[in-house]
Amino acid sequence: MKLNKELSKGSHSLILLKLLSVRDMYGYELIQEMARRSEGVFAMSQGSLYPLLHTLESHGEISSYLQSDTGRERRFYHLTDTGRAVLAEQEQEWARYTRAMGLILEGGKA
Known about the structure:
CATH topology: Arc Repressor Mutant, subunit A
CATH superfamily: Winged helix-like DNA-binding domain superfamily/Winged helix DNA-binding domain
Number of helices: 5
Shape: globular
Number of strands: 3
CATH class: Mainly Alpha
Order of helices and strands: HHEHHEEH
Number of domains: 1
Mean pLDDT: 91
Radius of gyration: 16 Å
CATH architecture: Orthogonal Bundle
């Protein structure tokens, strides 16, 4: 089940950075892993993924390299030190956001 696009807006960068903090991955692998880990809630098309990867790369948060994988050359993406710092910041921000939303949804009870 996919989320309303407005709900997931802005979270895709965080998701990609988090996935790449585990290991380097190529594009289609990122799409598959995102769907698998979210039980299909987060789904991204290649048409949405690659512009986002290019943006993250232009900001220095990820880098890419070509590598042969099972006889096929693929572009793998790697989280940089800058990306790790951005990820830590975004994780803290997301934790504050979800706590605040939880407080509202639970009627203000902590």
